[in-house]
Amino acid sequence: MAEARRVNRMWRNMNAKIAAVPMILTTLVVFVGGTAWTVVYSFTDSKLLPRERWVGFDQYERLWSNSRWLTSIENLMIYGVLSLVFTITIGFLLAVAMDQKIRFEDTFRTIMLYPFALSFIVTGLVWQWILNPEFGIQHIVRGLGWESFTFNPLNNPDLVLYGLLIAGLWQGTGFVMCLMLAGLRGIDEDIWKAARVDGIPTWKTYVQIILPMMRPVFITTLVIVAAGIIKLYDLVVAQTSGGPGNASQVPAMYVYDYMFQAQNLGQGFAASTMMLLTVLIVLIPWAYLEFGGRKHG
Amino acid sequence: MADAALNAPARSMTEARGTKPKRALSGRNIMIYGTLIMFSLYYLLPLWVMVMTSLKGMPEIRMGNIFSPPVEITFEPWVKAWSQACTGLNCDGLSRGFWNSVQILIPSVILSIVVASVNGYALTFWKFKGSDIFFTILIFGAFIPYQVMLYPIVILLREMGLYGSLWGLVLVHTIFGMPILTLLFRNYFSTIPEELFKAARVDGAGFWAIYAKILMPMSLPIFVVAIILQVTGIWNDFLFGVVYTRPEMYPMTVQLNNIVNSVQGVKEYNVNMAATLLTGLVPLFIYFISGKLFVRGIAAGAVKG
User: Fold this and answer.
1) Do A19 and B39 count as a contact with CB atoms less than 8 A apart?
2) How many CB pairs under 8 A join A and B?
């Protein structure tokens, strides 16, 4: 009887373990194994197929002396900083506006969030059309009588990143607004009451009390938005294809082109390893704050 | 506290007189609604332009203004985008991409949700040695750039004979959907009282019986959230579609991009916008019918529950 129960229990645990096999395989083989594989093979001169001819840091030297890669990194940094600043500022301001017990809150939310349901491909193509110099905004303003008006960011290497930014903000700010609004709603009503009782003006309450209290929400949002920016790919493919020239190239595009088009796997691996490194630079301080801090607190 | 309670009525009595607060309120309202309406225009503009452009003929587009409504409404661009637009040598329109996406979507959504919900269940009620470590790796995996894992997965799929096939892509969607969905299910299941689970075990129910008969019926809302998340996510995917399938199996997003950004032929902007709108219709439909559940889905991974 006792024997049978033990066997039975083992069998039950077996079931749980069998059920966890897909997760174990995904984490160990794909996430850990795949990442390690790519890092290791970034030290080879793999071309069309991966091969074990070790070349040390050659791929990385080539990478960092490639002007297209340097442009990609520069673009990502400019786009990333601007995008972070604007998404978080606009997201927070809209959330504050939405939190004033306004009418039609659901309607406004629906309008602000629907772009987030659309793909970056759709986003990129629509804004490519709106920014089209012959038909879009430039054409219309010129038609109103301002003949010399120029607004053609997608064909101007100096402005193309702002063209992407307009589209990226359109797609993503609603989402950040929702996160921020959830954060604002999570703040205890008593704090507002106390601030009102003390006669602190609303704006001052936001700046001095609510903002510091929302720190965890800001950090989480920052990490999510930053991780998304590093992956930036579809939007650029659809809106500018990396052009004009190489002016709007991004690292993810470089990786794809070297891996699947130029048949230079080693370069692709080195570039993707650099992307991983960038993510770790963002992620490790956050993980430390989030999980390391909680143990002590 | 007592101090505050004493102060409060005194303040409200002095402030209750006069019209000042009301005027301040309306100024404040103008600012709030002004901001919201201005931003709403920014968000609505592309949708408006897409719809208007897709209903005009090319001559009208060349002469007119992209914001103005069509003088003469035509549905021809929609028909053309759906059944005649060309990618490469194929001229059977976006319908091909649509059906490809449907074929990819259904098994991917089902498989990824089944796997992730079982993960969440095992991680909540059937913890085994090291299960939390796997969960941590899984969550970190959500942040690893896909580009790092693209090629190793090509090798894995090739070894399994799935590279370039529908099922290969389904597997990829299951893998990359796993972190967020497992988190979603684990967070939800951990709110279910453990006594319920223990009682079922005492009654002799096993791993799968508890999952299917007790947990699943109790957790329908979270399954709906997961479906919303996965349908929009997988439908909107571009990178995996382009890497792991052959051109004849390309999902709608990839085919759309190939149609619109093709360098051959005369650009038909109305057809392009109809095609873009067609591709966006599925996620938009999900978005409008799901309402607040959509918000819950996207916030689930971000704000800790």
Assistant:
1) no
2) 264
